[in-house]
Amino acid sequence: MTAPTTQVPAVRLTAIEKRFGPVRANRGASLEVRQGEIHALVGENGAGKSTLMKILSGAMPCDGGRIEVGGRDVTGWTTAEAIASGVGMVHQHFMLVPTLTVAENVVLGREPVSVGTFDRARAIRDVEQLCEQSGLIVPPDRLVADLSVGEAQRVEILKTLYRGARILLLDEPTAVLSPPEVAELWKVLRRVRDGGATIVLITHKLDEVMNVTEQVTVMRQGETVARFSTASTTPEGIAHAMVGRAVDLSVRAGREGSAVPATPSAPALEVRNLVVRGPRVERAVNDISFTVAPGEIFGIAGVEGNGQTELLEAIAGLRGVTSGRIVLGGADITALGVRARGDAGLSHIPEDRHRRGLILEYSVADNLILGRQHHYQQRGVLDGDAIASNAAAQIAGYDIRPADATLPAQALSGGNQQKIVIAREMSRPFTALLAAQPTRGVDVGAIEFIHDELRKARDAGKAILLVSAELREVLTLADRIAVMYGGKFVTVLPRSEANEEVLGPYMTGAKRESAA
Amino acid sequence: MIIPRKHAFGCSRPCTESMASRLLAMPRPERDCTHFMRKILALIGVLLAVHVALQFVHPAGAVAAPTGNALDVGIVFDLGGRGDKSFNDGAYIGAMRAAKELGARVRFVEPGEGSDREAGLRLLAAEGMDLVIGVGFIFTDDLTSLAKEYPNVAFAGVDYAVTIDKNGNAVAPPKNLAALKFREEQGSFLVGAMAALVGNSKKVGFVGGMDSPLIHKFEAGYRAGVKQVCPDCEVIAQYAGVTPEAFRNPGRGKELALSQYQQGVNVIYHASGSTGLGVFEAARTLDKYGIGVDADQYKEAPGHVLSSMVKRVDNAVFDAIKRVADKSFTGGIYSFGLAEDGVGYVYDEHNKALIPDAVRQRLEALKAEIVAGRITVPSTK
Amino acid sequence: MNARLRATFEEAVLPPLVALAVAFVAGDLLILMYGQAPGAVWRLLFDGTWGKAYGFGQVLYKATTLTCTGLAVAMSLRAGLFNIGAEGQLAAGGFGAAVVGLWLPVGTPAIIAVPLCVMAACLAGGAVGAVPGVLRAKFGAHEVIVTIMSNFIVLALLNYIVSAKLHVPETLHTPAMHAGAVPRLSGVIAGFHGSAANWTIVIVVAACAAAWWYLFRTRAGYELRAVGLQPDAAEYAGVRVGNTWRNALMLSGALAGLGGVNFVLGYKNYYEDGFAGGAGFLGIAVALVGRNHPLGVLLAALFFATLSQGGLAINAMVPKQIVEVLQGIVIIAVATSVPEVRRVLRNAAGKLAGGRA
Description:
The structure holds 3 protein chains of 3 kinds. By secondary structure, chain B is an alpha/beta fold. Chain B has helices at 15-24, 35-54, 87-102, 115-126, 140-149, 184-199, 213-229, 250-262, 276-286, 313-325, 357-372, and strands at 72-76, 105-109, 131-135, 154-158, 177-182, 203-210, 234-241, 267-271, 289-294, 305-311, 332-336, 343-345. In chain B, 40% of the residues lie in helices and 18% in strands. Chain B has a 6-stranded parallel beta sheet, with helices on both faces. Chains B and C meet through helix 2, strand 2, helix 4 and helix 5 of B and helix 1, helix 2, helix 3, helix 6 and helix 10 of C.
């Protein structure tokens, strides 16, 4: 065996092959992680990162290749064997029982037992001890249902640690966290690493890579294309490897939002005293008023679950309003249905393209008329020619790849799926655009493109209401920024006065001011 | 349970599918023939090879479809008929007796749905069976039309519903079709007399299924039998309903029986299909007696079934086969009453103890009078 | 494009082929267990169905009804709903046709009577389907439970009407219709003589084509499928989801009701209590095996009709229950190998368990 380093690597994957039907998810992928390092596994959506990690954690078998952990060949092992050997995965979806307490969730499956019954006191003691060691602070007797997302994630990590994991695999852990929570997570991970653990972090956020990791492995189209020492590379270098071409990362660098400040004029979109009921709370949106002027991007920042979803759904007509008015271009649209609002000039990029924005099994062409189907028909019969020529125009105009209108949307990458939504919503006539998480789960190249499109629309005099969980994105694009917390705007600031340090305390609810 | 977490892909589907759809999301220029597909094709190949190989297996004792010169009889049961411990099983018993005593070769067909009744009859007729029998009144139309189409095949219909023309006269069935009818009122008459004689009460009970002329025939005979031996006895007659569902409602049967027993009735005769099971249930609960119908129902509530008015479908079927065997078969209406041993009551080792010899003699005397035509049993209310 | 065709082949055709191959081998083993020679039994099955004009006619007749109930189930599944009520809708359709046929004066020309009776069948079935549709749209009542219950209600009600008011004495059927009979195919193709195959099959094949056109070429179909695949996305696209559900179940009921024409107008010329027995549930199997596609439904209906008729033919050598076991095997094999069927079944199970749709 030829060892490139004197130390046996914690993990070594060689020539991993994995197929799903006709799709080759991994083609000869490789990965080498040293003991005690934080290693980033980066790549665009669909590059095969998650598959590779699932293979490593025993969740699925590979079709070819070799898995070594601590120098031992473990190819083809099961999840149980992986856990027993100290390899644990922190899932993207939380696997927690909401009606049990933190301690109960952590020990679930490995409950401490005394005289044949569950030893609750010992479970709580064990978990407290583990919290202290790792620095993951969660009250062990709280119900999981009452936890915030960040806390729930800590419980997931605790669970993995409790099972004795020495190699932790984390799949996009920061997607739902507020900036302070992210900072907290990095602290914890460093501490866990310092305790001797090895961490593999799946991400596509380059600042995270630069901040916390020592090594980076880049995947593209199922292959491992590059490996860097973090200290010796730049975000541009990583992005180039991810996409396969040079990428302008100025967005990431935090360029100032608008070159031309918005000129005040009659609002294109106005919301007055809006109250909206949420799935669990009576006032998910609690008496919010604001206006968006033509040629303005109004950004709403905030940790998810503070009413942003309900606010946008109410404006789009997908959720009834308890009270308040919505005015579009001077006309009251509060009583209109979804379709009528669209025809009145409202476009909507929904936050969840897999659930709302696309019909995954429909073709690209069919998805490009979703919500506009009543404009592509004659006496109830769909106009195939019009649909096809629309598809051809949008595919060309928005560079949707592969350029095949008959492919089902689910066959496209995340970025290209989002381009379908963007193309559809921005190519039609509209006064105001609701853009919810417009770049979520989208690769670097597409983010650049989508941001450009939003700016172009703004410059063309459209009013844009932007909601994003990525504070960076809001800071980059918006002319004015509101922070939403607990169903209210806790502050509204012009871009020039906002930065992460200023907004952070508002996002966590630590600070609030009355804003109307 | 999974705490729904809004993650970067916002996928609303469960984990496994989101995995699959994300994998699909990979750009892929080529979709070549994978070895997954090759595996599936290989599986199909192996299965087909096994299948072909098995075609050449001939187990010992395998029989070919019957051919030859023996007496061939085909019987089509009603939907779900076999195992009803009554009608269809009666036909089966009669046919098996014919197979043993007359050497008939019998084939049975169980239809899977309504249109299979005709298809089954046709299948048998087309194969040149000597006699084709349909069990149940529901075969009436199919038998009539097939009998016309296959004039050289003999047909018989158990409980065949004879058409009545505008003047109230029976329309004769085709010449090669025997309508096997039963005079249930005669059997009912005898169990009516039995109920009055054994019941030790001035009240006797009757529970009918669907309130319809078919069941009125049972009630009429029963009523006449009661009055024959006990003119001042009262017959409490009730029906479980007005739809065929009334033949499948044991709960209702029990309810009716309990109320009748509480009014002082000691014996209830039921003509109500499985609704009668409720009658027996009530009899067992209150330690009273019930009288069964169609087949011997002693086993439904041993010790509480006084007797049963039996329809000897087996005798009727055997009789029809025998006529074909000795070439005396002709079409027409065959009515099976007491004289032909087509109806009767059960008197055997199980219920001997319940029926005093004096009663038994009285019943036999009444039967003789009916057979001799000295008593005419009414068939309508 | 070639790769696409291959992928379609892989996804659409292979699972049923595997199911068929498994069924063949399972059938062989069952026949052997019964002590008969598989070769002889299969030959008998073939001779009794596709091998003879009469048998084939019977297959066509049975397939006609099954296509209707299969289409009905497929139409509802495309909208994301599970219509278990095809049996009641089929019976109601047959009854509607029979009543109109009885009501028309003797001698009404077929050109008027047949369309009227067919329309009555569709309306009656559609009306029965509308009930769970409206309950689902307005009150969110689970259509699975409502359609199961509607079967009991409709069948009991028809049973009552027929046996208490309309039947010919000593039978469970209505008097013969005065007009509206659909001629048998044997009038044109002599070989079909005796089989119940009739011109209804032409109406039903046309209904198949119309269902395909509706689903894949009209805006309403586009919206219906969208609702079935992703109700949230459909709502986002301005589709009134509740109305779509109602329309889908009405359409589904009308298609099932159309099946009643086959028996009532094409075969017996009267409504007979219980004629729909089993066809509704087999319709679910037809839709699943036919993958909710009208063409697939047509083929699956032919397949199940062949098994049904074949079961009669091989009754001489083996119990016909063997055929029922084979049906079960095919359904299970397809259900486990087709992803969309798995999804449908999972959704239905979720609904029955009280989970959110």
